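Structure (tokenized):
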């Protein structure tokens, strides 16, 4: 019997490794396609492949429902791979500027690729160099490795730069993989699991993140990993689980300081455990001390170094453009603007104004970034409306799911508080930033993209346990429409070649 259990555990471990291996292979494979001169044809091929995977999954799902999830995960990989192939590193980026410019986040990556050492000058002298450096270090080493290998494989330097997106696509896949692990960890099953999975696999921000070579997506991925180990610690209270949580949190802050938004949730549960487990007071104090010893130095050494060596303020953020002027705070909350379009309004895109309504801007940037896809292909605006309306409906469902889960106590009390504080702290942060720094850029959902995890958890729990099959199926169907609209939108974008 023991041997049988060990065998099952080994098989389970192997199965858990499959998504990682598939993601790695998918990311590496995309690097081979940058030589393609016709992204439109490639997108058509990707659409055909997604259709084939979907059909096969539906057939297999009759005998094994897990096949549907695996098929959907593969489709989510294909659309991300397609996106990074037709999206160059100078398109739809944030603070990147471009390789070869010497500044911006691309310049920071090139600095580490060339120097392989920390900066020895004031980071304020070069735009983007003030960021915590983990992502740029990893991307720089990857770029350096490629340029070395490229001598033998005849890779151009431009192609090596484009292949940095292979890393960001992998990080985006990690968000989905660990998000799904957390859903399973919380024992969310059936249609609830399917609904939460669809949000974590097909939300447009994760497609956009695949091609964005800044530090956003690695920060989110490491937060997911930290939450995964923290939830595990909440069950087993082992020092290893909490240490891995601390390591992931520290590395997330070493990528981007906004990862500190996870700290209030962690802190409340750590305090709760300490009060509830007075008989294990010394055990918890020792573990918490180790948590701090691991996470704090890793998380804040970079801003501390910049402060000590160059006098950079600990909360330094450079001025960013697109100031929002001529509207009141009430208008920014309640008035949607005069232009009727599903896409993000920006003067740079030819609109009369920059999107100023905070809730609408957060929603639109989560779906389309800062892009206007109205002219990319026939039907793009129609699909854009479908994505916007289904996305807005998902937001309403999320609120209903949170209220329903909290009121009816459908989830463990500590997990509920953890997820709720995670969401509230994140939205409080971005709303405060929107009004304290009244720029278009401060309204971007990418700053709080990690809220997809608690939102998926609340939706999943509510769908599974609300007790109303019609409501559960309607919500799952809505998430399916949202996922299909997301795939259609970013397939249509690929129909227009940038070459």
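Design, position by position:
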């Amino acid at each position: 019997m023991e041997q049988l259990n060990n065998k099952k555990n080994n098989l389970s471990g192997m199965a858990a490794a499959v998504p990682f291996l598939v993601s790695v292979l998918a990311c590496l494979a995309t690097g081979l396609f940058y030589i393609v001169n016709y992204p439109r044809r490639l997108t058509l091929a990707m659409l055909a492949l997604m259709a084939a995977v979907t059909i096969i999954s539906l057939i297999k799902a009759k005998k094994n429902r897990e096949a549907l999830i695996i098929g959907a995960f593969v489709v989510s990989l294909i659309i991300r791979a397609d996106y990074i192939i037709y999206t160059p590193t100078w398109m739809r980026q944030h603070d990147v500027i471009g390789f070869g410019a010497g500044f911006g986040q691309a310049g920071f990556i090139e600095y580490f690729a060339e120097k392989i050492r920390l900066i020895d000058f004031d980071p304020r002298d070069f735009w983007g160099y003030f960021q915590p450096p983990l992502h740029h270090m990893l991307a720089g080493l990857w770029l350096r490795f490629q340029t070395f290998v490229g001598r033998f494989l005849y890779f151009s330097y431009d192609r090596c730069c484009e292949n940095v997106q292979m890393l960001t696509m992998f990080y985006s896949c990690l968000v989905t993989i660990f998000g799904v692990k957390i859903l399973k960890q919380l024992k969310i099953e059936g249609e609830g699991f399917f609904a939460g999975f669809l949000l974590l696999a097909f939300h447009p921000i994760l497609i956009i993140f695949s091609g964005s070579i800044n530090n956003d997506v690695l920060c989110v991925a490491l937060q997911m990993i930290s939450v995964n180990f923290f939830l595990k610690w909440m069950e087993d209270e082992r020092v290893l689980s909490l240490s891995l949580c601390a390591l992931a949190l520290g590395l997330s802050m070493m990528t981007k300081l906004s990862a500190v938004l996870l700290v209030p949730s962690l802190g409340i549960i750590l305090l709760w455990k300490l009060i509830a487990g007075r008989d294990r007071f010394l055990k918890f104090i020792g573990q918490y001390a180790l948590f701090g010893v691991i996470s704090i130095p890793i998380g804040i050494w970079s801003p501390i170094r910049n402060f000590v060596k160059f006098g950079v303020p600990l909360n330094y953020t450079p001025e960013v453009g697109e100031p929002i002027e001529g509207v009141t705070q009430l208008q920014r909350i309640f008035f949607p603007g005069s232009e009727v379009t599903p896409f993000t309004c920006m003067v740079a895109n030819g609109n009369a104004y920059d999107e100023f309504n905070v809730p609408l801007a957060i929603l639109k940037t989560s779906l389309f970034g800062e892009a206007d896809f109205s002219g990319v292909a026939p039907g793009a605006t129609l699909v854009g409306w479908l994505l916007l309306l289904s996305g807005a409906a998902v937001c309403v469902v999320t609120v209903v799911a949170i209220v329903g889960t909290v009121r009816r106590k459908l989830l463990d009390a500590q997990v509920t508080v953890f997820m709720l504080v995670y969401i509230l702290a994140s939205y409080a942060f971005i709303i405060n930033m929107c009004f304290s720094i009244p720029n278009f850029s401060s309204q971007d959902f990418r700053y709080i993209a990690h809220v997809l995890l608690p939102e998926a958890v609340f939706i999943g729990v509510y769908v599974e346990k609300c007790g109303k099959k019609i409501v559960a199926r309607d919500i799952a169907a809505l998430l399916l429409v949202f996922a299909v609209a997301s795939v259609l939108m970013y397939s249509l974008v690929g129909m227009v070649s940038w070459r």
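Reviewer-requested clarification: The radius of gyration is 23 Å. Residues 281-310 form the longest helix (30 residues).
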